Amino acid sequence: MNTLGKDEIKKILPHREPMLMIDRVVEMERGKRVVAIKDVVKEDYFFKGHFPNNPIMPGAMVVEAMAQASILLYHSAYEDRLGGKVPIYYLGSVKARFLHSVVPGNELRIESETVRLFPGGGLVKSKAYVKTIEVAEAELVFAVK
Q1: Any catalytic annotation for residue 100?
Q2: pTM, 2 dp
């Protein structure tokens, strides 16, 4: 599993539009690393209020994209164990820094790496980029039920 399209992502993530924040996976090293893409478009629902005359992707949505990429990373490690079931994920802790704005027309590239994964959850480090510019970084702790 090196790349995934939106249909394949929907088989793994419980999220659907407008909350699905991953459009494709362009790299996957099973259980170790994932690189996912979110195409940021002016039609994204959150731009209606954040901000109408100066649209900026909310930091919470950047973190949500990082969390979804991390779920894909978790799934790649435990796919056989999950047996096709889509578990429920809980984000337990987020330590994030936001460095630059993300605006419509940007391609948000999320790179998540495993710090520690175990059957009940994990700790993942994630960075988000627009082109070569790092826009955010986060440590995410999550649980799986």
Answers
A1: no
A2: 0.95
